[in-house]
Amino acid sequence: MTYVVTENCIACKYMDCVEVCPVDCFYEGENTLVIHPDECIDCGVCEPECPADAIRPDTEPEMDRWVEFNRKYAEMWPVITERGAPPANADAMDGVPNKLQTHFSPEPGQKETS
Length: 114
Description:
Helices cover 21% and strands 11% of the residues.
């Protein structure tokens, strides 16, 4: 089992999940996050931290497409290890339907500077 980020993260990107991840398997896009399914250790600590309820175990119905979505973008985007500020309209975007078609950006997020 692994955990994956689903559609409701798009345009919400709260990032509460990032700081609790013990293996740094979150990757940042311009307006969403993903979890690398091959790096996730299935601990589940991220799931209850997500205010948008966008993190799910891959054992739930119809999660195969989200596993592949997360894998694809985790291999393209930079890793994120610290929580950033969510978009100003994150609360308004929480629960908006069809965000993958209407709001998703394939662009990477900010690279971390260390």
